[in-house]
Write the structure tokens for this entry.
Amino acid sequence: MFIPCGRGGGSAAPDFKGFTLLMPAVSVGNVGQLAIDLVISTLDMTKVGYFYTDCLVPMVGNNPYATAEENSVELSINAEVYSLPSKKLVVLQIRSPFIKNKYRPFCETLLSWVKSSKFSRVLLLSSSHAYQRDDEQLLGTPLRYLLTPDLEKAVGGRMKELNWKEMEKVAAYPGINNTDKVLHIPGGGITKLLFTESCSEGIQMAVLLKFCSEGDNIPDAFVLVNYLNEWLQLIKSESKNSTDLSSQWKIPSSWRLLFGNGLPPALF
Amino acid sequence: MATFFGEVVVAPFVVAIGRNAAAFLSSFILDSVCWEVVGVVKLWNEWCRTSSTTKVLPTDSFCLFYRLISDPTVLLCQCSCYVAEDQQFQWLEKVFGSMQKKDLQVTILSTCPVADYKTQESTLTLVSPFLRALKTKEFQEQVCCPLLEQPNIVRDLPAAVLSYCQVWQIPAVLYQCYTDVIKLDTVTIEAFKPLLSSQLLKSLAKDASESTKILKKFLTTGETHNNIYI
């Protein structure tokens, strides 16, 4: 459940009515989570609360977005909520994996919070295994989107303008019967569950995902966050001609030593 | 009745997670005269196994809770067993659910492998064991060692307890000891000694000679298991 930060047990919950909720799925390469880190860090978002749940593995550390000694000592936990009222944006960052059998309870708690907070829409950043792509998906852009029927009505046109590609459905019984098609997002974590639940509950949700593999997923995160930015325009290009905004996203200070410590000098 | 430490009223709760942290409390704080057992948490998971050492340490699948007889607001917990990730939330709810939250101040002691410590240098050049601390927003006192630098994180039960305290605005500090010994080890136990200079533990600490006696007992207990060449 959402617990606001702030002094005193009775601190009033901030008002999120009409805001967009941006969140990651814990998925292959952690691309969604990395992209969210870039958003929070670049927009210098303020932490407004915690999403306290028994569904995620506990973890703590000091401020992952620290820019100086003074702001480096604030404790962060596994699921936190950040806000940028000027863009009517709320971001939920998830920093640890799900505990076994807790996918569904988490989805239920999350969607219940979405409804009670009256968010206007939910944007889910996710990824899917690149090796599961079919022949057609191997060509062209590795980026896909999905919209729930309620959001399709509102922004379907914008997707066409952006020339985005919708996530294809795959045959339920490949080789046997190619007519029954289902949504299949391998490696997507809670993406499919959250999407299908949102469809049936009339929640406006969009999924933005990238096909990728495990490895150094920082470039994938940049691609995904630029994809998001094409739609939301969170940051604008500084130079008139450049369409590549990668240099304008601020890498958080916690993105260090992702591939282990320094090497022992005696090795050489 | 709450305890006065300096000018501030606190109800201290010290949690030692892991065998070395629990042994630190046994050596330097706990005794059978001033402390009484007031509670126990029993749990089972695949990591539990019965211990062949007895008496000095609590049984493997229990967490024991002690209270200072002269001041019942002072509580200690020794948790030597591994609390699995799907048991941690329940542990928190059961333990903190039965405690008075007013003036509560939590101190957590824990250990983890130095190989988990992320640093620019190689861990081979680090001098271990060493302490690092994490504290909640409400914790205003001095910490006894440097704070844990990013990108390091803490997991498992210590993280669960500290998260609970951060969310519910309880002042709490976690002292994580990075060590290269996974078994019970006197050097690792003694690495927690800087904590004895803190206001809280200074007033609870036992006589130094008694602590040395208990530490020696740990040393001999350990040796019997390690003499595979004799």
Summary: Chain A touches chain B through 39 residues (CB under 8 Å). The mean pLDDT of chain A is 91. Residues 103-117 of chain A form the longest helix (15 residues). Chain A has five helices and twelve strands.
